[in-house]
């Protein structure tokens, strides 16, 4: 039996179809009348008012009804982390989809900023403070014992201990992979040292422990390749969307599907369809660069 968010995504696809007919509208009305759905719809209407400027072009191109447009808002509120906005809009350093950038910071440290990422810096005589708002970055830190190099990312922070490391943010948390020496990671009330050849993840709950890591795979994006090994489809789509410039709506059931895959950054156009051919998920494209995934 399909989960509630899978059903809502299915309605999103059906209501955005240019062949929308009265029978479909009647079916939708019956779905809306079921217990709990009306309240979710009221939330969707509130969300729609905030989302409306970004969806004007979608509605114009597809001539969808207001009811269908509201379905877009409802899907965006469902569990599964549908992202429709970009944090770090006013960050000091930003990259667009498909763009990577190498930064030389004032202290001599170097940062490789991945596509769709945003980074801010605030250096003073006491500390080198950075914030990774969204996306992914690889840090090669210049030695300066008097000024700690601290990167805030998501629900935690990472302090360099004379090192090189990679941080990847997703909608669920952050992954830290160390390629040289070590870092000190903090989240919530916990902290842990992560050494070269190890990775650690954290989220709003806290740290989730260290484990061996393939540093070459974790930083393969710097060489134009994305490598995923036993990753969740949700994480994979977070990264693909950031690199390709898509906005992704994915159901919770689809988000949990495990994925092992390699993608060339220069050839991401059909990546969702390739995944759908080998995984128990369905993919639908909508105007405005929206990719919708739900479980089969």
UniProtKB/TrEMBL annotation:
One of its GO terms (molecular function) is sigma factor antagonist activity. Residues 92-183 form the FecR protein domain. InterPro entries: FecR (IPR006860), FecR_N (IPR032623), Ferrdict_sens_TM (IPR012373). Transmembrane segments: none annotated. Residues 6-46 form the FecR N-terminal domain. This is Iron dicitrate transport regulator FecR. It comes from Cereibacter changlensis JA139.
């Amino acid at each position: 039996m399909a989960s509630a968010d899978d059903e809502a995504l299915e309605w999103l696809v059906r209501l955005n179809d240019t062949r929308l007919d009265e029978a479909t509208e009647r079916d939708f009305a019956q779905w809306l009348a079921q217990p709990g759905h009306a309240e979710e719809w009221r939330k969707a209407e509130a969300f729609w008012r905030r989302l409306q400027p970004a969806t004007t072009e979608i509605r114009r191109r597809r001539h969808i009804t207001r009811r269908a447009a509201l379905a877009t808002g409802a899907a965006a509120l469902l569990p599964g982390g549908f992202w429709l906005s970009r944090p770090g809009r006013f960050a000091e350093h930003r990259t667009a989809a498909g763009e990577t950038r190498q930064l030389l910071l004032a202290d001599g440290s170097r940062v490789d900023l991945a596509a769709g990422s945003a980074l801010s810096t605030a250096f003073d005589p006491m500390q080198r403070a950075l914030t990774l708002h969204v996306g992914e970055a690889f840090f090669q830190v210049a030695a300066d014992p008097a000024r700690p190099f601290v990167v805030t990312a998501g629900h935690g922070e990472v302090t360099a201990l004379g090192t090189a490391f990679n941080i990847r943010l997703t909608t669920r948390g952050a992954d830290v992979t160390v390629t040289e020496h070590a870092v000190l990671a903090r989240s919530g009330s916990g902290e842990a040292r992560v050494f070269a050849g190890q990775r650690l993840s954290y989220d709003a709950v806290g740290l989730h422990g260290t484990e061996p890591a393939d540093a070459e795979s974790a930083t393969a994006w710097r060489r134009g390749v994305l490598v995923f090994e036993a990753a969740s489809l949700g994480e994979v789509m977070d990264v693909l969307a950031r690199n390709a410039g898509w906005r992704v709506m994915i159901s919770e059931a689809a988000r949990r599907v495990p994925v092992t895959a390699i993608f060339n950054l220069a050839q991401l156009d059909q990546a969702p369809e390739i995944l759908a051919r080998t995984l128990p998920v369905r993919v639908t494209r909508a105007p405005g660069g929206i990719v919708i995934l739900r479980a089969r």
